[in-house]
Amino acid sequence: MTGASLWLCPPAGSSIETALQELISVTIPPHFGDEKVPAFRPHMTITSDIPDDLDPEGVLEKISLSSPLEVSFKELNIGKTYYTRGTLHLERTPAIVGLARQCRELFAHGGTEEEVVDRWEKEVFTPHVSLVYSAMDPVPDNIRKAVGQDLQEANVGVLHWNGPKGEMRGWKGGRISLVSTHKPIEEWKAMAERTL
């Protein structure tokens, strides 16, 4: 990945943060055999390609939020790239899309024109929470089913599942983090963080 990234993370210490971290770090990796899949913090990438020489606190201060942010899991998706191999796709709410557009326009590549942001939003932006980064391609059906089972057992729900009452189907609020994703995954860390 080039530059730094802005992430929307679950509220610190929340049940959904704990459940997702357990899935990412412990439960899902064994399905991928001998491949050493990395652990990472649960997050939705708002945008990437942010120059890493910008003032981290200044970036977070410039973000304005007009409505409360709510993340809702839509479906489990097995993607075609290393970073999207296993994801929870999210509902494209006006608040999520608005935040992504604002951050892309303000910070990506040091600032981007509105028409470029329009194209990025329509063709590239797919709000999701990654569960695994993997080189496995294709992912066999039995692994796809196992990851779905892991989600159900962790009580993490998506819209088309009728799970138990109290099922975790997303989060409200959380934290925006500017993360050093231009470095190797094991060196990713928050350069600055803002609680919503």
TrEMBL record:
Q: Which Gene3D superfamilies match?
A: Cyclic phosphodiesterase
Single biological process term from Gene Ontology: cyclic nucleotide metabolic process
Name the source's superkingdom: Eukaryota
Q: Name one GO molecular function term.
A: 2',3'-cyclic-nucleotide 3'-phosphodiesterase activity
UniProt cross-references to Pfam families, sorted A to Z:
CPDase
Q: Which InterPro entries match?
A: Cyclic-nucl_3Pdiesterase, Cyclic_Pdiesterase
- This protein is called 2, 3 cyclic phosphodiesterase
